[in-house]
Amino acid sequence: MGSELTASVLLVEDSETLAATYQAYLSKENLKLARVATGGAAIEFLSKQSPQVMLLDLNLPDMGGMQVLEWMVERSLPTSVIIITAYGSVDIAVDSMRLGVVDFIEKPFDASRLKVTVNNALNLHKLKSLVENYQADAGRDSFHGFIGSSLAMQNVYRMIEAVAPSKATVFITGESGTGKEVCAEAIHKQGTRSDKPFVAINCGAIPKDLMESEIFGHVKGAFTGASSMRAGAASQAHGGTLFLDEIGEMDMELQTKLLRFVQTGRFQKVGGSQEEQVDVRFLCATNRDPWEEVQAGRFREDLYYRLYVVPIHLPPLRERGLDVPGIAQKFLRRYAKEEGKQFRRFSSLTATVMSNYDWPGNVRQLQNVIRNICVLHDGKEVLASQLPPPINQLVPEGAIGKDGRHPEEVVTEEQTDTGLNGVSQYQIQPLWITEKEAIEHAIDHCDGNIPKAAELLDVSPSTIYRKKQSWEEAEAS
Fold first, then answer.
1. What is the mean pLDDT of residues 157-172?
2. In whole angstroms, how large is the CA radius of gyration of the chain?
3. Within 13 Å, how many C-alpha atoms sit on residue 55's CB side?
4. CATH code for position 347
5. Contacting residues for 213 by C-beta, under 8 A, at least 6 apart
6. Which helix (H) or strand (E) holds 335?
7. pTM of this structure
8. How far apart are CA 261 and CA 211, in angstroms?
9. How far apart are CA 178 and CA 364, in angstroms?
10. Percent of the chain scored above 70 by pLDDT?
11. Does 108 have pLDDT greater than 90?
12. Cα–Cα distance between 84 and 106 in angstroms, integer?
């Protein structure tokens, strides 16, 4: 079948002769073929395992094949079904297709027809599985400290998951404020070293003459002020992860020593004569283009090739679609609680202005803006008039009245809380929060029974479990 893994197929056929014929037709295919003779036996088989494809005869001795199919549909089994019958008709074909049958084959047929039909069904099953897995990933609105469900962030999440179990060096790039350290911590937490130290050094925040000591440590008397021996980040990260942020700021001489450390895992403390050996995983980041830094002579080419094993690029906030409202809402809840303020949401005008802003400082700038608002203002709703410069320059001229509200934002307290028919028309909030509230309401309604809640919401229980885990991780971060 062209697949590395053996595909599983169930044949439901009561005729011994025909069953033997079909098994012979498929004998040279890369298949694990099981066979049962009755509808009851098929249901019993399917209750224990789900083959990728099922060849189902409609005329069975104990029940009709359509009954088996209806039983499968009620339980949303993922098996792709091919109907086999000698009593074919347009009506039967249409009815079976409505129940999700992928193909309809009428007796008699030759080996070639059966092989092609089974091949097509297996390929379709594989494609459906890929789509479902992609949709499941696309549903993640948070991941190890990140908030966002945009396609750009789903790609980042998948890259982190793929590279985390490895010891390969990861080079994280992205504009300032995009979350490079959050990414590094996510790789550490997702990997096999999560119970070991994660040590971060910002190469741009430490004076160059102290950087070597920060990384490798120093012995007593190594330089003025070195009154005692000090372990550096390399020793502290033993067994875990060493993250070198803004590595492009490191001077060339120290880059040479770092190259040897990355290659061998060995180093000497400043002023020391003995070598130490440590086991660390290297992660590094820069807000510059590392290859341009190499071409400009500011970064060693050999160090670049040693570190640039797996690159992960973090997209700027302006390229993350509708992620802004969700991130802003998280910061609003956090800082309103810290400052003892009432803020619960953003007005529609505020949300529109924030979504249209380019955020050159990315998530860090958004974080600072929300903190500014929570420190200087109060209320249940963040108004456009409370936005600080330069974001407030996007507020349309004349859109804010003397009371600081847009005319459409002038509502009574009662309307704000309940709105018409008990539902506020002004409580516009990010879609993921609405989804969270709906799922939590369904779980409460079902007394904590998640499979039952999933059935009411028309989603799989795994979707609810995954989303609950992502919310809990976001709240813990």
1. 93
2. 30
3. 27
4. 1.10.8.60
5. 222, 223, 226, 230, 232, 270
6. helix 323-339
7. 0.60
8. 15
9. 7
10. 85
11. no
12. 6
